[in-house]
Amino acid sequence: MSGSRGSRLGAGKPAQPWVSEKLRYVDVWGGELWIDVLKSTLDYGLAPKSWTDYLYLSVGGTLSNGGISGQAFNHGPQISNVYELDVVTGKGDLMTCSEEQNSELFHAVLGGLGQFGIITRARIALEPAPQRVRWIRVLYSNFSAFTHDQEHLISLHEQPASQKFDYVEGFVIVDEGLINNWRSSFFSPRNPVKISSLGADGGVLYCLEITKNYDESTADTIDQEVEALLKKLNFIPASVFTTDLPYVDFLDRVHKAELKLRSKGLWDVPHPWLNLFVPKSKIADFDEGVFKGILGNKTSGPILIYPMNKDKWDERTSVVTPDEDIFYLVALLRSALDTGDETQSLDYLTNQNRLILKFCDEAGINMKQYLPHYPTQEEWMDHFGDKWSLFYRRKMEFDPRRILATGQRIFKPSLHSKTASSSW
Questions:
Q1: Does residue 424 form part of some domain?
Q2: Domain that holds residue 393
Q3: Number of independent structural domains in the chain
Q4: Is the N or C terminus of the chain more exposed, i.e. has fewer CB atoms within 10 Å?
Q5: Which CATH number do you get for residue 69?
Q6: Closest Cα partner for 306 from 277, 341, 344, 273?
Q7: Quick check: is 281 in a domain?
Q8: SS3 388
Q9: What are 214-268's pLDDT values in tens digits?
C-alpha cells in the first residue's frame, strides 16, 4: 500500500492503520485497538510480531506498559518492536521520536506509564503472518520439571523457526474447577481431567501451553517438527491436548472467553489482579510459598506463569525487570464474585495479594510489579531502583509541571500545576 503518511495521519480524525508492505511496518493511531491493527495488516499477509493475550486494548496503552504474551521470549515485548512514535509531551510539544531521533523521549515513553507524553502514532514492526496454529497443552505435576522445560524452550529463541515453538506460556491449576472450566476447550466435559489422578504435588498442577505456526504449504512437516520438540520435554505422558486453528482465532482466543463470561454476568466485576516479574532463582520459592501455600487450593481466575529472556528487553526504556538473565511473569488474574463465598470476595483477594507481596519481601524475592500500583512516591522509588534518577530526570524534561498521569502518585505535584494539585 502506498500513500503519504501525512495525508493519512494528519487529518482531524484518527486515520486507519497504514501498512508499508515493502518495509514491513504499520503506522497506527495511539488509540487503535490491537484487534483492528491485526485485521488491517492481515490484508497484506503481515502481522505484528509480539502480542498481548487480549487484543481489545489500545496500542498506546500497551506500549505505555510493555505489552507481553507468549511471543516475548522470542521477539521481546511489544515495546521492543516499535520503530517510531509521535508523542505529545507534557509541555504540549508534538514530537516524532525513534532510536535515531529524539531517542531520550522514545525510550522514556516506552513502558513509561503515560508519565512523559501521550502516544498519538506508533510505527510497529511486522512479519509475514502464518495461516494456522498448532496449539498444544501438556500437564506437569512436578514444578521443577515444568520450569526446566519452559526454560529449555525459551533458550531456543535463536534457532531456525522449524526448531522452536512460536509461543511459550503456562498456567497453574490449584483446584479441580479451573482445569475443566477455564480455557478448557482442550478438556472434554465427558472425560474431565482429575488433579488427584495425576499425582499433583501439593494439589497443584502446571500446564505448559505452546504453539507452532504454519502455512498450508508447510502443513506436511508440522507433525514431525512438533514431535521432535516434545520428545525433549518431561510432561505427564497421557496429558497432551492439541488443536489446530486459524492464526487470528488463536490470537483472539481470550475474547471468546470474555463473551462467555459476559453472557453469565461474570465479566464486569472487580479484578484484583497481581502481575509480578519473579527472578528465575526464586521461582521455586514462590511456588512453595504462594501456589502451594497462600492460595490454599482456591483461586478465582487463571494464574499465568512463563519465563522471558531479559536480553529481549531494552534497558533504555522505562520498564524495570529483575536483574537476572531469565525472569518469570506470574499473573494472578482473579475476579471478585459476589457468590457468598468469602474466598471469592474483593476483600479476601485484595488481602491475599498483600500477603503474597509480604511473602516476597520476607523471602528475599526481588520481584518487580508489572502494571504496577503503589500509593506513595517512596514505594515508586523502590520499584524503579537504580532507574529512579533517570525516570525523574526524564519527567522534569518532558513534563516539568507534572500534569500527566497524576493519579499514579509517582511524582509529588508541582506547585505550578493546579491539575496535579487537585488530584492529590
A1: no
A2: 377-415
A3: 3
A4: C
A5: 3.30.465.10
A6: 277
A7: yes
A8: helix
A9: 998 888 899 999 999 999 999 999 889 999 999 999 999 999 888 888 888 878 8
